[in-house]
Write the structure tokens for this entry.
Amino acid sequence: EVHLVESGGGSVQPGGSLKLSCAVSGFSSFSAEDMSWCRQSPGKNLQWVSYITAKGRPLYENFVKGRFTVSRDNAKNTLYLQMNNLQTEDSATYFCATGRYGCENRGQGTQVAVSS
């Protein structure tokens, strides 16, 4: 069974930064897996944010492009999301998930609150 545990969320002011982590276990080889990040704001649908392929190729949704960076450390079985220049509309619960899209198999999430 694959287990995903997100951490690193918190409260920041607009323009601030946070780095989220996702500890992954249960794969026979984490390095062979595509991974992604999604988010959900209260009252809104789940949104896909970014993915990174097994070979390390990233893709981003337009609303985070240039501000967020996805990365992975295969030796640590960990996925990351560096978030810079955070805006109020980025406030959400962030989830890491297996695969590139869909966010179906995801962790419990970590909350990010951006406010002045």
